[in-house]
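Extended Data, panel c. Modelled sequence:
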Amino acid sequence: MLAQKFVSHLKRRIVPDQVRELARQLIKFIHNNPLVVLDGLVSTVQYFDNLAEPMVEALKFTTPLGYDVFMYLIMCNLCDPSKQKIQDDGFTPQLWFQSLCCLTGSFLKRYSEAMLTNDAFFHYVKNQLRSESSSDLLVLNEILTQMTGVILKDNMSVDQILGQAGGRTLRSQTLDAMSFKERSRKQLRVVKQSMLQNNLLLTMLILVTQQKAFIVHRQSGLHLKARGDWLDRCQDSLVQIMEFVSTHVEFHREYAPIMCSFQELHRNYFLSLEDCFFILRPLLHHPRIVIGLETLTFSSGRSPLILPTQADDGDAEMGEIREEAVDLEDDIGVNFPTTFAAGSSVALEQTVQSLLPQSLCTLMLSNHIL
């Protein structure tokens, strides 16, 4: 009863100027009654979204047990089946859901140590996507925005768009003033550790991509505009994850070992060709990954196949691919190298130049693309 009275008293007096004093009072009640006190705080934030930041700051003296209870209560409210997350228009999130997403992102950003041994929110989003619940992409977007600083903007200048064609340094410099908030190495390390464990990053990429097909084929009851908005949101989530990967994940050491081949993504997980190339593009541009590719062939009426070199690959399958390459040579009159070894980059460059128009080759050479 005393804890409930304190929560009612706290709701009327929590302001940014008095957060430190309230935090000292809050820890006394949280230590004795964590469920009662923190449940009242979470319920308050659902109706007053501007209290998210002061509420998170007031938990600065809370014990690890209090952090776990706070995350548990947020999860319980997100999983409540009696609450509707999306408004009647089919796209706009409810106020309580939007407030909880902001509270989750702010809490994990401020107390990233609570996520070192508990990546429950990533697993929650993963399970919700498996249940074909696209609305919980908001939770993922808020976590990545708050903890990694990767923010997607609709309006970009010409220079910023051109900067996205460069490497990591150029992309970060052109978007620094617009998209990258202040972030610490600890927060980035926590997100990387959570996403790379148990192939969670690959699972999230596949599930987010599959949501687009689910929206098109299985949500026929939604209005056409709402379906288009959800498609855009899924694509934004995919771009946000890949932007985090391209900026903070080592391609050859962290990204390549967990990634599937092109053939597996397309045939086993039913991803579209453009999505497969989008996910694998960081690997295709890395020298060590390019060397590991046996061949890349295009035959009429079939999808492009990217097959990594493995010691136990069957000779029959590779022989079939080489026969397709020979047939393609006869059709268009161009000789393709059957394999690309470590020292054959010059031969590959000459083959590409022979296929492209002279004007385009000149332009690519002037920009150091070839």
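Strands lie at 293-297, 305-308. This feature is highlighted in the accompanying rendering.
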